[in-house]
Amino acid sequence: MHAGFGESSRAEAVRRARRSDRRVFALVTALLVALLALTLLSWTTVAEEGSGGASQEMEDPADVGPPADETNVPGSGAVSERLGTQDTPTGRTALVANPLYESGRLSPLPCPVPELESQDPESMEEFLHTIADCLDQTWEAQFAKAGLEYEAPERVFWEEPGVSPCRPYPSPAGAFYCRASESIYIGLTDVVEKWNGASQSVIYASLLAHEYAHHVQGESGLLEYYHEQRQLETEEADRNSWTRRSELQANCMAGAFLGSVRVSYPLTDGDLDTLLTDAAATADRPEETAEERTHGSIDNSVSWTEQGWEEQDPGVCNTWEASEDEVY
Ligand SMILES: [Zn+2]
């Protein structure tokens, strides 16, 4: 009897357990269905926002406008066809909701940098190539995280004067990026002269990282839209307002890169001071008018650079949605 009771109680327990398993299963299924529905719903909403913005702003994707200065590029909007990557964003989406902003912190890749003798062009060349290799690895990894394609820029580390599709060099701009040739131009002795013979390597590393940031803007689709919008402005002051956002974003991204390699480079607190002093030196002067201001105030130039350095995340470099006084 006891045994019988025991048996029947076991059978009852098994039935109960099965019933409860079925209930758990039903509950889990219901939860999964709900989750799936939610995911689809949010995905649809995002997709609608994205494509709506893009079609509104890119009525004729083939028309990239005349090449004014550094950018407009045949084929810059080239769309990736590879699996596992998404299309390069276009329109305002590229500026304010670029997938790069969601890609997280830069991976701190090892970047041991050779000693720099800034007055020796060979040393400068080796130094710049080392930094450029690190920049390519860092941004390639970051673009992969964002699901975007990245192609390295060409490096033109020149000693003899020459001509780029954007402008001849040497140029008053010193180092520059030309989107039409997807190339970075730096003169091995010219750059040292322009920086009054500075010897600290971080200055040249940050200059290169800044030009790379313009390439990153190009590869992630935002440079093209920025240039289009800038061309539409009829007032110099309004064009400059666009330019400052682009330049301050480049400062921030350069800071992010340098912050990410500070351990292996290595960079000290003293180097950070040098970096921020340099950001102040390349900023607009307080007395300059809105018609002259293209790089941002001293405070803004320093703070965007420092923010990048501290967070090492392209997501903190979205200058396009910053308030006017953060980008003045
Ligand atoms: Zn720049």
UniProtKB/TrEMBL annotation:
Top-rank taxon, per record: Bacteria
Membrane topology annotation: Single-pass membrane protein
Listed transmembrane segments: none
Compositional bias segments (type: Basic and acidic residues): 284-296
Region (Disordered): 51-92, 282-328
Subcellular location: Membrane
InterPro entries reported for this sequence: Uncharacterised_pept_Zn_put (IPR007343)
Residue ranges, compositional bias (Polar residues): 297-306
UniProtKB keywords: Membrane, Transmembrane, Transmembrane helix
Name of this chain's protein: Neutral zinc metallopeptidase
